[in-house]
Amino acid sequence: MSFDPKRDYPLGTRRPDLVSTPGGLPLAEVTLDALRDGRIDSGEIRATPETLRLQSEVARAAGRKPLAESLERAAELAAVPDELLLAVYTALRPRRATAAELEDWAARLETHGAARTAAFVREAATAYAERGLLAHA
Amino acid sequence: MRSERFASRDRRELHREQLISPLPELGLVASGGPNDPEPELVVVSGAVLRMDGKDAADFDVIDRFVVAHGLDLEVAAEAMALEDAEVARRLVDVDVPRVELVRLARGLTPAKLARVIGLLDPVELMLALKKLRARRAPSNQAHVTNLKESPALLAADAAEAARRGFAEIETTVGVARYAPLNAIALLVGSQTGRPGVMTQCAVEERRNLELAIRGLVTYAETLSVYGTEPVFVDGDDTPWSKAFLGAAYASRGVKVRFTSGTGSEALMGYAQGLSMLYLEARCLAAVRAAGSQGVQNGSISCVALVLSVPGGTRAILGENVLAAWLDLEVASGNDAIASHSEIRKTAKLMGQFLPGTDFVTSGYSVMPRHDNTFGGGNFDADDIDEWLTVQRDWQVDAGIEPVAEDEVVRIRERAARAVQAVFSELDLPPVSDEEVGAATTGYDSRGMPDRDRAADVEAADELLARGVSGLDVVLALDRNGFGDVAEAVLSMQRQRVSADYLQTAAIIDSEGLVHSAVNDPNVYAGPGTGYRLEGERWALLQSLPNVVDPLELTGGEPEAEPIVVERGEAVKGDDPAEVVVAVGPAFAAAIRRTIADLHHRDVLEAICDGVREGGGVPRIVRVRRVADVAFIAHDGARLSGSGVALGLQSKGTAVIHRADLEPLDNLELFGMSPLYTLESYRAMGQNAAGYALGKRVGPVPTQLDNYARAKLIVRTTLLHARETQAVVAGAAPVELELAVPVPST
Fold first, then answer.
1. Which of A50, A44, A53 is nearest to A21 (CA)?
2. Domain CATH number, residue B207
3. Counting runs of H as helices and runs of E as strands, what totals does chain B give?
4. Is the ipTM beyond the 0.85 threshold?
5. Residue B644 carries which DSSP code?
6. B141-143 and B168-172 as β-strands: parallel, antiparallel, unpaired?
7. Interface list for A 18-47 with B (CB within 8 A)
8. Domains in chain A and their CATH numbers?
């Protein structure tokens, strides 16, 4: 199962063995037959955190550090519920949240294992405080 | 005083636009503004203390974000120490590889980036863009919308766009609640046209994410960034919120592209006195720092504002180069209407069209611009043949393929039928056969039957409530005889699972293989390297439906009855009233009609009649040794009893000549053969007789059509080739007589 980010891309064609759905269905088994038999539901059609981490490694190996970091955040956010995702986005918009509220959202993200994204939110809170972009308490 | 010429120019389309002199305090300066900061970077113990004229304490959100996530301090000391001109030279030096330039860019501040780009002239910018594009081969993106939000028409247009080779197709909505219906129509249509085309529906972020989560779209480019803090904040975002959103989209399997462009800060009122290109450098530094794989840039919706100031077109090309240099995928604008003037907007396009970008336009309007609800349509359905022809002219691949009319009609109908089936299967308001028919062959949505729009939006809401997804679309297609389209839509769902298209500049081919800057990078390093339009692709892009086989253009009438008969070698005549009509080697033989489609018998008869009316005696000879009209006429003149002859090429060009003149001199030249009628030839005969008899002769009135050459030069060439093929070197001239026509039965 070794992975070489410089050689194994695209995963879908070079390393389908490394790719599965959130429910564990291998990529090769996402077929019309499986769909007709009712073996796939729509929740299965998304990248897992593991797949997104592999994509992050591919980006890093290609010299694209900011893209790699974004894909790492994406890997974390894959496990975050839609509503929380949208709530955090709203809180990060200008003057929507106080420093304390942003800290609360960061903590919520951490409970979903999104440590890097939580740090990103805290970094935003610091910048917002200095630029007057926090909501007034 | 009013000049009629100035007045005429004032009425041209160009003059609907305003040009202004620069006004830097409002940001109305393309590049190199007087208030742009000097490039500067002060780093102490790994901390940035000053950048581009500001202390760290004064950094706004953009500066802070770029310093925190973009600027690579390991490269910065080396890169910032380079002279501007040295960096600029490396950008156009084919021996400095893209990888090295991208590495240096990571260590350059926005002011330095803008300064270096400002040193390149337009051709240097094009070379730099060709070198710096992320993906090996260029491609293109289509807009597909219509005012009635007709699903059959959306599907048909998406299918045509896909079939024509667009790698991405973008739609949007007039009424927000339509989004899922339009997304489905686009998905079904695109995959009918060509499997692997990526689609998006540009709507508000929450709705967009929902469409993505359901597998109805695969990319988004709605994430706008701006170059000053007040404008960024007026856009209700910060670099952190946009970067978060980008990661959120990626987490749901959506390819993300940010959007920026020169002129937006001035338009939104807070350019802070800075030039458009410098502010775009700040945008792009932020886009890269946010971890976007790419950007839609090239002024986009502000293009007409940027073109109002001097150097605007150059600055827009400059921003595309800057984005590519920062290792971003570039969808290079050319979507919003840049100018009323066809010349001006095409001239602007060449900056991206010739070097090739990841997406030459960020929205070519596949339908007439009347239906373009993006406010786009800079190039639209009616311009496609021009686009294809310019590709063929330059031997350049700008991402659109020629497709025959029959095939376009076939694919449009199939897509409209497919979406009809999907709507039926998903219990959406039905798509009628009448709609399918109008979508297949109609011009735009004005020809589409009206739908019950209230029922449509209600059904769209309900569709979302039911949790309908891309998989339901697959099943609906499968159950209705669209198995191949079902497989294609399912393949797009599989792409979401493997997420390969999240890498830089990714597109998907019809076999489902992802091509991105990772596995298919641009490695241009000078002549003979990189992507070149040749082989099968070049054969495809030159085979336009309107191209004809040149051999078909001059089809003769080989079995037809003879027009003339030969009567032996021609000798000099002695009748002082004689006018020789000297025809070319192929006349009335291999060629039987002039370029104006006059039959050679009729032409000869008209000339002879004219000669007789002028008091002369016509005699017809064929000159065989040359095909040039001057020599044909001069040879004829030397045989003529009067010394005057009318020379006539097979295509219809004529000269009146006299034996004592130099061969390339003449009495009258008739070079506008496409314009001549039998009356013209009769008048030439009359004049020739007049010269023979020594009368006063006024020249035959001639017309001028400067377009005749453009229209007919190919046929002229082919006809003349036949004439020269009939030449017999050194052969003597022969007497001709008009053949007696065979009576028709």
1. A44
2. 3.20.20.350
3. 29, 20
4. yes
5. E
6. parallel
7. 19-21, 27, 30-32, 35-36, 40-42, 44-47
8. 1-79 (no CATH), 81-137 (1.10.1510.20)
Q: Distance (Å, rounded) from C-alpha B623 to C-alpha B732? A: 7
What pTM does this model have? Answer: 0.95
Question: What integer pLDDT is reported at residue B703 of this predicted model?
Answer: 83
Looking at the partner chain, which of B206, B241, B497 has a beta carbon nearest the beta carbon of A30? Answer: B497
On whether both B482 and B527 belong to a single domain, the answer is: yes
Q: Which of B494, B525, B540 lies at the terminal end of a domain, its last residue?
A: B540
**Is the CB of A10 less than 8 angstroms away from the CB of B61?**
no
> Which member of B213, B237, B246 has the closest CB to residue A70?
B246
- Clarify whether residues B603 and B678 are in a common domain: yes
- pLDDT tens profile B223-238: 999 999 999 999 999 9
Task: Answer yes or no: is pLDDT of B745 > 60.
Answer: no
Instruction: Find the range with the poorest average confidence among B70-74, B157-161, B210-214.
Output: B210-214
| Whether B300 contacts B338, CB under 8 Å | no
Same domain, B404 and B502: yes
Nearest to B516 by CA among B529, B539, B498: B498
Question: Are B534 and B590 found together in one domain?
Answer: no
pLDDT tens profile B113-149: 999 999 999 999 999 999 999 999 999 999 999 999 9
d(CA B331, CA B139): 9
Is the omega angle on the peptide bond into residue A10 within 30 degrees of 0, that is, cis? yes
The pLDDT confidence band at residue B310, using thresholds 50, 70 and 90, is very high
Query: Is A122's Cβ below 8 Å from some Cβ in B?
Result: no
Q: Which of A41, A68, A93 sits opposite B241 (nearest CB)?
A: A93
Render pLDDT for B581-625 as a digit per residue (tens, 0 to 9).
Answer: 999 999 999 999 999 999 999 999 999 999 999 999 999 999 999
Strands, DSSP E only, in chain A?
A: none
Q: Count the domains in chain B.
A: 2
Residues B425 and B531 in one domain: yes
Note the residue count of chain B: 745
Residue A81, min C-alpha distance to chain B (Å): 11
Range of the domain at B629: 564-738
Of B220, B218, B248, residue with least CA distance to B470: B218
Residues B531 and B580 in one domain: no
Task: For residue B689, give the CATH number of its domain.
Answer: 3.40.50.10150
Is B42 within the bounds of a domain?
Answer: no
What's the CA gap between B218 and B492, in Å, rounded?
Answer: 8
Whether B647 maps to a domain, the answer reads: yes
Among chain A residues, the shortest Cα distance to B499 is held by A47
Q: Give yes or no: residues B595 and B533 share one domain.
A: no
Q: What is the DSSP string of B57-108?
A: GG--HHHHHIIIII--HHHHHHHHHS-HHHHHHHHH-TTS-HHHHHHHHTT-
